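[stage:ingest] chain + small molecule (aspartic acid)
[stage:ingest] validated
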Amino acid sequence: MSRLRVHVLALGGTIATRPDAGGVMQMGAGADDLVAAVPLLKELADIEAETVSRVGSHSLSFDDIHAVAGKIAATAADAVIVTQGTDTLEETGFLLDLLVKRDIPVIVTAAMRNPALTSADGPGNLLAAVRVAGDPWIRRHTRSLGVMAVMLDEVHAVADVIKAHPTRIDAFASPQTGPIAALVEDRVVPLGLPVRDAIEVARQALDKVSGEARPVALLWMGLDEPGGLIEAILAAPDRLGYRGVVVAAMGGGHVPERLAPLAGRLAAALPTVVAARAGGGPLLRHTYGGASSEIALLEAGLIWGGRLHPLKARVLLETCLRAGLDRAAIARVFAAWG
Ligand code: ASP
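[stage:predict] done
[stage:export] tokens:
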């Protein structure tokens, strides 16, 4: 390949903050500023820097990420790096993985420590992302790697990565799989290819994703949950505006027993996906009996989310609903996750 061309799309986030007069960090920097802060980048690649937005990632929308996917589809560059906030990176990156069908490296990166702090990690993460984008192993395996998150010299598959700590610099982890590569000195050391069969099933089913948002509620099950939110959704003629629900269930796919009838009614009213509140991980299918066990919930029509983290299950369900998939097609997409 001739000289690497990288398209940087900046959305905002801590990596793009600046201190105001009172020392409070505010959104401000654009893509040009982020690139200018790392002079070495010029030696590694030709960079096209585009500022898409200057918002915290807690304020990004599904539509925003669909627009970013459109930019990636249209780019003439050899790789795309999306910079954004860390708060929703595990969701936005996963959505890009579902939407982007280009065989070029697509990398999401961010910063945990803001630019006013000693040892801010934004510039190093951007530099690492560019090195990863140009690495021969990464480029050879682009299709098998999917969208990647590069944080603190680790490369993660976005389908597996989560933000596991609110403030630490090493906040990102892939608890079920570990990182797919590490950056050591200036080279990428491969550790393994991600398992992407389920993503491919989803991508095929999601051929025509329309533009209309389909809100999905995320209901997290805790000890002695009384089910008031489920009742409120069922009682509202418009289902409170929700078009689907993800239940972050206990253990291998359980809810408190008194919720069993409500869970069944919910599944009859809206596509309802179960994912593990433990942070993802394959669910059980036929181990426990009882009114609200995995066997009973499956019989009641709840859709099994497989190994997906509840946040990623919510992203996938929203995307399936946007694509107009019916319940059976949605169940097939989720079944591929094990
Ligand atoms: N609130 C910030 C954001 O997600 C946090 C960060 O970037 O680390 O935009």
